[in-house]
Amino acid sequence: xxxxxxxxxxxxxxxxxxxxxxxxxxxxxxxxxxxxxxxxxxxxxxxxxxxxxxxxxxxxxxxxxxxxxxxxxxxxxxxxxxxxxxxxxxxxxxxxxxxxxxxxxxxxxxxxxxxxxxxxxxxxxxxxxxxxxxxxxxxxxxxxxxxxxxxxxxxxxxxxxxxxxxxxxxxxxxxxxxxxxxxxxxxxxxxxxxxxxxxxxxxxxxxxxxxxxxxxxxxxxxxxxxxxxxxxxxxxxxxxxxxxxxxxxxxxxxxxxxxxxxxxxxxxx
Length: 269
Description:
Layout: H1 7-15, H2 24-33, H3 40-53, H4 58-78, E1 88-89, E2 92-93, H5 95-99, H6 101-120, H7 127-140, H8 145-154, H9 160-186, H10 190-214, H11 229-249, H12 255-266
Antiparallel strand pairs: 1-2
C-alpha cells in the first residue's frame, strides 16, 4: 500500500505524541505546531527512509515527528523580541504576540524537550536509529541551529562565504537532519550518508536564497547583501544541477529530491 506523505499525515503523527494537558503552554505549542507549515522536513525524512530502506519504519515516523517539533521550537524562539522580533508567522500572529513572551519561551523549551522524549520512544536499541537520534539533536544544538542563530545575531555579513555559512547553519541544519536521519534509519552506508549530507547542505543554501529573495524587504542579513537577485537565481540553478548529479550517484530513486529542487526554485512564498 502506497503511503501518501501529506501535511495531514504529519499532523496525525504529531498529535499522537502531544500530552493531554490543556494549560496555556500547550495551547501555545498547538497554536504554533499546527499553524500551516509545509512539513517538508519530516516529509523528506520519511521519503528518504523509504527510498533507502524500501519501507517506512516506525522509527522513521517517530523521528519525523521529533524533527517537526524541533523545527517549530526554533520558529517560536526565532520570532521572539530578543531574536528576530517578528510579529507575524505564516500570516498569523507569532506565538509571543498571541500568548505572551513568557509563554512563547516556555512553549519553545517544552517542544525541544518533547522532541527528545518522542525520539526516545523509538527503537533506541537499534544502532542506526540511535545514530539518527544523535544526529538530529546535534543539528538542534551548538553545532546546528544554535550556531546558526548566533551567526544571525552577532556575525557580520561581509561576503558570500559568510552568507553560505549562515544558510547552512540556520536553514540547512534541519534539512540535513531530515535527509541524514532518513538515510540512517533506512540503513544507508556511511559513504551514502555523506552524499545525502552534501545534498542537504546545498538544499539548505538554495532554500535560504529563495527565502531571502522573497523576503527582501525585511531581511537584515541576506544573500542579497552580497549578490544580485539575478546572480542568486543563477547560483540556485547551479546548485540544483549539482544536487541532481549527486542524487544520480546514489542507488536509490531520489526523484522526490529533484522535484523539491524545482519546486523550491519556483516558489512564491
